[in-house]
Design brief:
By secondary structure, the chain is α/β, with parallel strands linked by helices. The protein has 13 helices and six strands. β2 and β3 form a beta hairpin.
C-alpha cells in the first residue's frame, strides 16, 4: 500500500520516535486498520437491525450454580381430634343344656328351673362382663310324645327361662334314651359361634345310657368328637348311679374334651334362700316398673315382667343380680328406656311404636318420662348390686361348708365348676371366672 493512501477514520496513533524501516511500518499500519475494523463491526453488531443476524460462533456451555432456594415456610399445624378408642368386644359364653325330660328326671328339671338364673348370674359376674347365650335340647325316646325339642342359642334369658319352665318330666319306659340324637342335634342344630375365642359348653344331663340299637344314623361318640373339633367342650352330668350310664357318660366327656360329673338322682339342688332375698325380690319388682314396653318386642317384654313378678324370691334375686350389671329391666328387647339409653333408637323414630300413654304426650314430656325412669333404674340397680355382693358371699360360704362336710355337689355347683374349667382352657376368651 502507498504511504499516501488516506487512513481510516480512527483516533491518531502516536508514532514511535524511531519508526522501523519500510516493511515493518506497513505491518503496524495493517494492524491498526484491522483493530479499527473489528471495533466498527462490534458497534454495528450491537445496533438493532432489520435483516437476519449473523450466527454467532458456538460458545462452550458454562456451568452456573443454581440460586439458593429460599427456605420453605413451615407446614401449618392441624390438630386432628384423636380417634375414639375402639370398644373392646365383650367375651362371649355359649351354653347348651341337653336335658333328659323323662319321668325319672322330675326333681332335676324342677330344680333346673330355679337354678338357671343363678348360673346366668354366675356367668354375668365374670371379668370382663361377658355376653351370654343359652340353648336348650329336651330329649326323651322313640315312642314318647317327642324325641327331641331344640331351642337355639338365645341371648334373651327371660325367653330361655320361659321355655325351661314349660319343660315337663314325662314318658320314658325302657332304661336307655335317645341320647345320641340329642347330642347330635345339640352340636349341629345350634348356631354356635365360629370364633375360637368364644367359650362354648355343652352339658349333657341325664340318668340313662344311649340307645345303641337304632339304625337311624345317630351316634353319641361321633357327635362328641364333632363337638370337640368345633371347639365345644362336652361336660356330662350323670344323675344317680347307674353303671351303664356312668360308662357312657365318661366316654362321651373324654371324647368331647370335657369332664364327667355325678350328682344325686334328685339333682342335689341346695336351698339358695338368704337374708337378702326378700329385699332383692322387692327391688326386682321395682326394676320392672322402670320398663316401658314398646314396638314388636313389647309383648315379649311385658310377658317377661309378668313371669318375673310370679317367680319365687330366690329366683327374683338371682335374676336381678344377672340384670343389674347390664342396666336392664328385661333380658331381651322391647324396653324403650333401655333402647333409648343404649342409643339403639331415637325417640323421634319410634313414635308409631309407642304405647298409647306415651303417644298422648309431646316429645319433650316423653323424653322427661324416659329420663326419670332411667334415673330410677340406676338407683335401684346400685342397691341391687350392693345386696348381690352380700348374697353371693353368703352362698359361697354355705357351699364351702357343705363341701367340707362331704355333702354331694348339686347340679348348679358342678355346672359352675365345669364352666370355670372351660373358661380356663380357652385363653383366647380373655375371660376370668
Amino acid at each position: 500500500m502507498d504511504a499516501r493512501e488516506p487512513e481510516a477514520k480512527s483516533p491518531p496513533t502516536p508514532t514511535p520516535t524511531n519508526p522501523p524501516p519500510g516493511p515493518d511500518r506497513r505491518i503496524v499500519t495493517y494492524t491498526i486498520l484491522a483493530g479499527s475494523a473489528l471495533t466498527l463491526l462490534g458497534v454495528l453488531a450491537a445496533r438493532p437491525h432489520r435483516g437476519p443476524r449473523p450466527t454467532p460462533p458456538p460458545v462452550a456451555p458454562v456451568a452456573v450454580a443454581p440460586a439458593p432456594r429460599p427456605p420453605e415456610p413451615p407446614e401449618p399445624i392441624v390438630e386432628t381430634p384423636a380417634a375414639p378408642a375402639a370398644v373392646a368386644a365383650r367375651p362371649q359364653v355359649e351354653l347348651v343344656f341337653a336335658l333328659d325330660t323323662t319321668s325319672s328326671m322330675t326333681n332335676l328339671i324342677e330344680g333346673a328351673k330355679q337354678k338357671i338364673w343363678s348360673l346366668a348370674s354366675y356367668v354375668a359376674h365374670g371379668q370382663p362382663t361377658p355376653d351370654l347365650r343359652v340353648g336348650l335340647v329336651a330329649y326323651r325316646d322313640i315312642g314318647d310324645a317327642y324325641v327331641t325339642k331344640v331351642y337355639d342359642l338365645d341371648g334373651d334369658l327371660d325367653r330361655v327361662y320361659r321355655r325351661l319352665r314349660a319343660f315337663r318330666a314325662e314318658g320314658g319306659g325302657d332304661t336307655p334314651e335317645h341320647v345320641a340324637r340329642a347330642l347330635d342335634e345339640a352340636v349341629h342344630k345350634m348356631s354356635w359361634s365360629q370364633a375360637p375365642s368364644v367359650v362354648k359348653v355343652l352339658y349333657l344331663v341325664g340318668d340313662a345310657p344311649p340307645h345303641t340299637d337304632y339304625a337311624d344314623g345317630y351316634d353319641a361318640p361321633r357327635a362328641a368328637r364333632a363337638a370337640k373339633a368345633r371347639g365345644i367342650q362336652v361336660h356330662t352330668i350323670e344323675c344317680g348311679n347307674d353303671p351303664q350310664t356312668e360308662a357312657s357318660w365318661r366316654r362321651i366327656a373324654m371324647l368331647g374334651g370335657g369332664q364327667f360329673m355325678a350328682i344325686g338322682q334328685d339333682g342335689g339342688m341346695h336351698e339358695e334362700r338368704t337374708r337378702y332375698d326378700d329385699e332383692l325380690a322387692r327391688l326386682s319388682d321395682e326394676l320392672g316398673g322402670t320398663a316401658i314396653a314398646y314396638g314388636a318386642a313389647g309383648g315379649a317384654a311385658s310377658e317377661a315382667l309378668k313371669d318375673a313378678e310370679k317367680a319365687p324370691a330366690a329366683v327374683k334375686a338371682a335374676r336381678a343380680e344377672f340384670l343389674a350389671p347390664k342396666g336392664k329391666a328385661v333380658a331381651g328387647k322391647g324396653d324403650l328406656v333401655d333402647a333409648i339409653g343404649s342409643g339403639r333408637v331415637r325417640l323421634e323414630e319410634v313414635q308409631a311404636d309407642l304405647p298409647p300413654a306415651m303417644k298422648a304426650l309431646d316429645k319433650t314430656k316423653q323424653a322427661a318420662v324416659i329420663a326419670k325412669k332411667a334415673e330410677e333404674r340406676k338407683e335401684i340397680n346400685k342397691r341391687i348390686d350392693e345386696l348381690s355382693k352380700l348374697r353371693r358371699a353368703e352362698l359361697d360360704r354355705r357351699e364351702a361348708a357343705a363341701h367340707e362336710a362331704g355333702v354331694v355337689d348339686g347340679f348348679d355347683a358342678v355346672a359352675k365348676r365345669a364352666l370355670k374349667k372351660s373358661v380356663e382352657d380357652n385363653a383366647l376368651s380373655g375371660l376370668t371366672m
